[in-house]
Specification:
0% strand, Na/solute_symporter, transmembrane helix, mainly alpha, 89% helix
Length: 84
């Protein structure tokens, strides 16, 4: 097995694999929402901007940075975030 999803499918079968996949997708969506809320709270506290500005600004900056830099930008970003 080279990935967790393949292991889960082999270990638990396709039915449970689907439940695990849906649970994972839901968890990721909730985590993204919490991260955006916390970003808005920090930006509001530091800069006094309305809470809706930070998620919109992040939604504009992050994809443009990824598109302009490609995969290398994503890799550098991950390294910078997890090295500290």
């Amino acid at each position: 097995m080279r990935s967790v999803p393949k292991f889960m499918r082999r270990r638990f079968g396709p039915g449970r694999h689907l439940v695990i996949a849906i649970s994972f997708a839901l968890a990721q969506a909730l985590i993204a929402g919490i991260n955006l809320f916390l970003l808005a709270t920090v930006v509001n506290g530091l800069l006094g901007w309305p809470p809706w500005v930070a998620p919109l600004l992040a939604a504009a900056i992050v994809p443009s940075r990824i598109i302009s830099g490609g995969l290398a930008a994503v890799i550098y970003n991950e390294v910078l975030q997890y090295s500290s």
